[in-house]
Specification:
Blueprint: H1 4-12, H2 17-24, H3 28-35, H4 43-53, H5 59-67
Amino acid sequence: MRRLWLETYRIQKKCTQQQVADSVDITRQYYGMIENGERTPSVSIAKKIAVELGFQWTVFFEEEEENN
């Protein structure tokens, strides 16, 4: 399931997928998969993305529980 909330945070920060990926040291393709809901980031990557975009990192894992 696509993470529209993640895309919204990124757009509000006026960042491209590439800029976020570079800042957290992952590929743009992997970040795109995270945003599209195709992959769930590790805890360490989730924390880095959350710091970069300004939200609570646990939201990545809360949504997984809701989908089960």
